[in-house]
Structures are given as C-alpha cells and as structure tokens.
Automatic annotation (TrEMBL):
It comes from Neoroseomonas oryzicola. The chain crosses the membrane at residues 35-54, 74-94. One of its GO terms (cellular component) is membrane. This is Succinate dehydrogenase. SUPFAM superfamilies: Fumarate reductase respiratory complex transmembrane subunits. The lineage of its organism: Bacteria, Pseudomonadati, Pseudomonadota, Alphaproteobacteria, Acetobacterales. The keyword Nucleotide-binding does not apply. InterPro entries: SQR/QFR_C/D. Keywords: Membrane, Transmembrane, Transmembrane helix. The keyword Transmembrane applies. Gene3D superfamilies: Fumarate reductase/succinate dehydrogenase, transmembrane subunit.
Length: 95
C-alpha cells in the first residue's frame, strides 16, 4: 500500500509540475531543504527497492530454483542497495 500511494503522489506531482510549466531549476528550488519531500522520497525508494527485490527473488525461485535463507539474504541486500541509490538521489534533491 505504501508503494501504491507513493507512486500516485509521485505521478500527480510530476504531471502537475510539467503542466504548470516548471523548469528543472524551479523544481529543485522547491525541493531543496524540504524535509517532508526528502522523507517521502526516502520511504518511496525503500519500498520500491524492497518490492523489486521480492519480485526478483520470486522469479529466481520459480525459474532457476534459487531458494533458501542465503538467497533470501542476498535478495534483501540487493533490495537495500537499490533503495540506497534511490535515497541518495532523494538526498540530492534535498541538499
């Protein structure tokens, strides 16, 4: 549910910015230093990264039989690394 709401907010925000004629500099001006947007995008990135890792784990289990605790830990690590990239990008908008 968190990811669904985050995607909806993200898309509405993008559509509003594009239709409003905002430039990239104007968007960055609005997001820079805004802790609420940083928190939102950090949660969005974390949920998206974990969602992707869960999907990849299930596909690997079904197609190549990769199962077990070690595989679960590896996919969790991949999800957290992916989320970390997203959080770093969100920080770039914030800082």
């Amino acid at each position: 549910m968190i990811l669904a709401v985050a995607v909806l907010v993200h898309l509405v925000t993008i559509i509003g910015a594009v239709r409003g004629g905002l430039s990239a500099a104007e968007i960055l001006g609005r997001t820079r230093g805004n802790g609420a947007w940083f928190a939102f995008y950090a949660v969005f990135a974390l949920s998206a990264g974990l969602h992707g890792a869960i999907g990849l784990r299930n596909m690997a289990a079904e197609t190549i039989g990769l199962r077990g605790r070690g595989a679960d830990i590896a996919w969790l690590a991949i999800g957290l690394v992916t989320a970390g990239f997203g959080i770093r990008a969100a920080y770039g908008l914030f800082a």
